[in-house]
Predict the structure.
Amino acid sequence: MYILLSSLLTICIPYHWGNPWFSTKIQFLNKRNNPKFDTYFFGSSLVYRQIDPTIFDTKIDFKTKSFNLGSPATFNPQNIYLYQNFLDSDLSSDVKYCFLELGEVDLLSDYFLHQERITYWQNIRDLLFVFKSINYNQDLTIRQKLHSYRNYLISYIENKLHLGHFGQQIINKDFYDPRYIGINGYFPLEMDFETTKDLKVKKSLNARRERIINNPELLISKRNTIHKYYEGVYHNYDHVYLMRIMALIDKSKEKGIHLVFIISPWSVNQRLLALSSKIPNENIIDMANPNKFKSIYKTDYSFDITHLNTAGSEEYSKLLAFEFKNIIDHINK
């Protein structure tokens, strides 16, 4: 009886319910009589905190109306899950362009276990995809692979039985906080710091910012490491992941949507670069190259070790729009 009720509940609740940031935005969009947005961004906080749709739109001469659907700690394959469900929803009608952050398949560390924002999306299709992807990863030890299999399997069972679910919605009246909508879905860390009433969040954000101000060498070291990724050639990439990417591109094209994958600043490694080299040029934008995008990597543009501040986000949004415009101009030639 419990299993039956759990299955019925799964059918009734929206696909995005366990991700409060993403869900708040979808609820906002669904309430509008005419969303008017034809471009959407999907990804983690590297999208949510760094891509300003308003800035992006002003730099596109063929006129876009974009919305940021990024949300914190939303990695692949959760991003893929959310995007695929978005494609199947009414919101995807009349959409022209979508951007999806390209990141490695998450190994699901113990830190994220038993959290509903991690378990809510677990399904058999993505479970099999993760298992195949992890199994193919030659850089992982057998122990690391088994540990990831275990964590994903536990999360899948918890989702099927709704173990530990819905508590936060009952306890926390701000679970779906309207602040998450920000400016067309964009919510920079500085805005979060200035508007939050949670003293713990404010203290944490301030500590992250102070760490960079007091230790700028951390950014220099990380930038130098990223430089090295672009100096050599790395051939080991995830073939399973590439097949999933190409399938997403094809499904998007069937819906009349041009899908573009983005490599975010500060978030790249050699395996990701090897994978990106196999994606068609019109479907990939690499924004992580410090040789090409020197301005993004300035210390003055950083909020913490991974995220840009508001000024950096504005610069990044402009550069991203320019790169995208080049892709469309090339296609239209």
Observations:
- Residues 310-332 form the longest helix (23 residues).
- The mean pLDDT is 95.
- The chain has 15 helices and five strands.
